[in-house]
User: Fold this.
Amino acid sequence: MNRSIDIKINGKNYSDVVEDRLLLVNYIRDVAGLTGTHMGCDTGHCGACTIVMNGEAVKSCLILAVQAEGASVETVEGLASETGLHPLQVSFRRNFAVQCGFCTAGILMSALALLRNNPEPSPEDISKALTGNICRCEGYPNIVKAIEEASLVIRASKDLGREPRGKENEKEG
Amino acid sequence: MTIQSSQEKRTEQTYVGVAYPRLEDLRLTTGKAKFLDDLSVPPGTHYAVILRSPYAHAKIKRIDAEDAIKVPGVRAVLTAVELLSVMDPLPLALRSPIRYYPIATDRARYAGEPVAVVIARTRAIAEDAASKVNVDYEPLEVVADIEKALAQGAPNVHEAVGSNTVWKKTFSYGDVGNAFEQAVKVVSVDVRVNGYTVPPMETFGVVAEYDRGSDVLTEWCNFIGPFTMAYVVAKALRLSQDRFRVIVPGDIGGSFGTKLAVYPYMALIGACSIFTGVPVKWIETRMEHFVGSTRAATRLSHLEMALSADGEFLGLKARITDDIGAYPRSPEPGHLLKSVSNFTGPYKIANLEISGEYVTTNTLPTSPIRAFGRPHLCIPLEKLVDKCAKITGTDPLELRKRNFIQPRDFPYTTASGGVYDSGDYGAAIEKLKQIFDLDGARADILEKRREGRLVGLGFAVGIEPSVSNMAYLDLAIPEEERQKATFMPHSGGQHSATLKIEPDGHIVARLDSCPQGQGHETVAAQLVASVLGVNPEDVRVLTGVDTFNVSWSISSGTYASRFGSLGISAVYSAALDMRKKLTEAASKLLGVSADDIVMENGVLFSKSRRDLKISSKRLVGTVYWNPGSDALKGGDHTLSVTRTFNVETLGPATLDNKVNASATYGFIGTAAAVEVDRDTGSVSILKYASVHDSGGSVNPGIVEQLCVGAANQAASHALHQELIHDDRGQPLNITFGDYYVRTAEDFFTPIFGSAAKKSPFTPLGTKGVSEGDNMTGPAALLIAIQDALYEYNADIDTVPFTAERIWSRFLSKNNLGESASSRSDVA
Ligand code: FES
Ligand code: FES
Assistant:
């Protein structure tokens, strides 16, 4: 059966008629055309498909697109703003936390949800928040360090009352 | 930005040795990278779903696709019957009557072997239709492991062979008989390495488009090379090379060797497109990856060392049996042959005998997995050396040092023909002791043992060979055949790089590599920027291969750590050539000799007369827009250079079976401290350190991140990873839930040190790096666990040494003391 849905992705409204069985991850990738969210398994184990939905990190392969009706979704494409890269993006780069980068989008989104709920995470908190994300390049030490550093940057810039954005933006693209 | 954009003065090598942030990360952290499944596909693309055999061994009696074909949107259901009309078998490196197709013909020989391909408008339709295909199987007796395969009267996986042994050979170097006669002691070990894999995050994928107009088949795939396999695929598809175009995207989501084995699927999906005339896309599912992609060989090894009175290694004998699954596909028997040149590792051992036997079973076929065959070799060899140290009462590091190839011996030719470039292994061991704080670690172990804890230390060393000399596979061919005049020997392992400066001054570097997380763009940009005096951001680096547009060779791709060795050398040489071209053009325009020209900060000027100068921008402009000028006319000043780098030592194999399988040889020494939980047998890594000799690194940040991953993967392999199947050959762990993969909750942070000895064979002295921990890691951990279990006299002989194995064999109470090896180790 087909159904029409309205979803907000990265602040933009999407209206489509989709098959009931379409997974949210396939909606995001194939219908909305946002291919930054990946699929690494078919069993909900890998976390490559992680997005933030209504403020929470969610595996988009484990829900149907129709279940996201009315939801507000954030994907990796929405992480950077006009003013620059998100501190997580900057710090992943600075800490050599990206190898092949296939897991990166999912990990960034898990980290984003974590830092919003817990702005001062310990390394243990970070590890815990990432249990649903597999990095097969096994760059975990660098990833955890990058998230910790990003949390410090965000806190410091909040103290200074400034938007925590990276300078690297001009080099992008 | 262009060649002239640099603001500051740059001199050569500014960026060499700098942990420059990766250029790739800008797209990888923003979701803008394009992996295979992200590429737009040709109009009319159909999707393939592969139906696979549920039986490990069965006759295929009938395939009924009538209902499936009726599903709206289904284009075709293809079986061997259809596909063999456009396809021949994939050529094998081994001489064998076996015919290897990417789809089962009359029999399925492993659970997961493709049996039919459903082609439909969408993937969902293809999946629906696949469930309607009925296959009538007649299950046959299954040969699931080496023991059964070699048993008397075992059924044959391939009846045409008449046995399950598909290859058997003994290589002898020096005088092994004499060495063992001279020996005061002979020490032996046995190790079984179970089949395992290092699965990447991104699964395999192929998009194939056969164009009737041009008669060209184009394939987009996340294949990593070597492009010998593209040749193999073209052969199987009856295509001449000019009609087969392979395009590998610049972003690949990990591989760890596995994506070499995309090639059978390139043949299968290519055949589907040729047969149906529509573009066909296939993206492997994770479960398919576990049952149908590839794995490392299962190996039984028995090693013996002949020792002199003072602990000198006089000779080494090895008996190796490899289970390579249902088909001996290329590049097997590489699990053994790739390591023949460096079989003796960093040790000086003049007398060597290797007996290899290759066995087929009803399991998934094998291919290279990170550090191809070297975990299989390093684990037993280092266990053997450790045992020699115990038996002779020598410190394990001292015994190793005593037997090392010494700095004065380089370049050193091993008994089996390997030409090692450089090294100071003794110095590396000293460095290892220091970064591991060996004295502190030993004190800590004693302290913890006093508390009754099961803790231990282990060391392992190894050679880290880089680049693959095709010649090694010729060892699989009988000598008589290699003697014939018609025989074409194989050799070489070259890497290419093309550098261009565009008319507007932009610099483009085109590599023939297929990186999967190794940061080649950044490294190449650092090299070019250093030589041409610009910033790394000024250099656009294109990776991935397009066989119609890239200077490629059969060696192209990214495997065998080839980039650090030959890739860097090719890029660097191309950059030097480009600088020479610019200097020559400038010398003509300025009317001074070329050696009088210097290039700095985007300006070329005469050293003797500094007022004679030309900006590189103007120079480039003149070459493009005014080559007919008096100064330039008649010369070749095109600003495009391609350099192919090879090293001279990569020659063909000799008739006495000596071969140099690699271009450069790094070194790695690893130390590990572990604790075994008495109640569960689970192992925690207390400390892990490795020293690498990579000859030096262009980007130490990248080298470190790769090695961090390798060390963690090593522990995953050593302690957990194996592909389990039951005796009917049914794979039992085919998801990330059942097959152990590490998460952020149980990683460890390794300590690394460098003991670089520049290679004389490469212009910057670099060697390859980052596969080493995958071999010394498991070896050091095994030895550390044996040490921790010393009161049980534990002989750990199976990899992985899982908590379950440790507990059931040693820790369950009544086993105390009984597990001591009953073999006589000391002859
Ligand atoms: S794709 Fe693996 S958890 Fe969603
Ligand atoms: S960076 Fe490759 S899987 Fe995480």
Observations:
- The two ends of chain B are 70 Å apart (CA to CA).
- The domain at 298-471+654-813 of chain B is CATH 3.30.365.10 (Aldehyde Oxidoreductase; domain 4).
- The pocket of FE2/S2 (inorganic) cluster (ligand 1) is lined by residues A 39-41, 44-49, 59, 61 (CB under 6 Å).
